[in-house]
Input
Amino acid sequence: MSVFTPVTPEQLSLWLEQYRLGALVQLQGIAAGIENTNYFVTTSGGRYVLTLFEKLTPAELPFYLGLMAHLARHGIPSPAPATDLRGRMFSELNGKPAALMSRLAGEAVTAPAPAHCAEVGATLAEIHLAARSYAGKLDNPRGPRWWREAAREVSPFLDAARSALLAAELEFQAQQRREDLPRGAIHADLFRDNVLFAGARIGGVIDFYFAGIDFLLFDVAVTLNDWCVLAGGEIDAARAQALLAAYHARRPFTAAEHEAWPQMLRAAALRFWLSRLYDFYLPRPGELVHAHDPEHFRRILELRIAHAGEAPWV
Output
């Protein structure tokens, strides 16, 4: 499992004394995830998720935890951070900042139908609307500056064709001007494994640890590039239309967003091609790291470039 910092029941029991959540009943490592250490925690008072942050610093965490708390207060099915007896949302455990979250109901959907995509689109719009009143500020940590840095590090591992594709797309994206697009706090990683369905409805939206301030349309493109694609990376028109229409019904897209849509689909594909290249070629030591195949998003990027004029819209 993806446990970089092991925690024993004895260590957790001592740490839990900072809370009024009851005694520890069960501690179970979570296999999913490549960025943080996660455990399911059951106490005599409830069920939670424990996260130990392997990369995020104490200076960065208030943005993420504050955003989740803000969204939960506004009716979004987001994990709500528990506060300890001193009012803190996180504290150190085994040398890492750690937080305890409410455990949400539901299961991930691996083969979504248009109805699932409509629920996701509607929920994403509600997240963007609720986040308008969130005061936290943090630029998207996986934005254009990170793209350039990551490209320099992974380029030595690429063949000539992939190097040329990466360089050309970075140059293309650098030439885009998008000052007129709506911005705000975005999830930035709303893939299928980060949405929990309880029946036909969404019971939870999880893993906000790539969130930041960026274009709202970028968040939509990231989401569509996972929820609405076929195995080869082609866009499934029915699912895409369902997601976009449900989002648009709650937060109507602007004319500028319409114009920028094909380029934003490419930007979203580039970001995840780069992150998967980085995780594949430059992994961090751990008990087990789930490195996704970078080729999937290379194919998506090439398809978005080749079919830019055919991008689905509402």
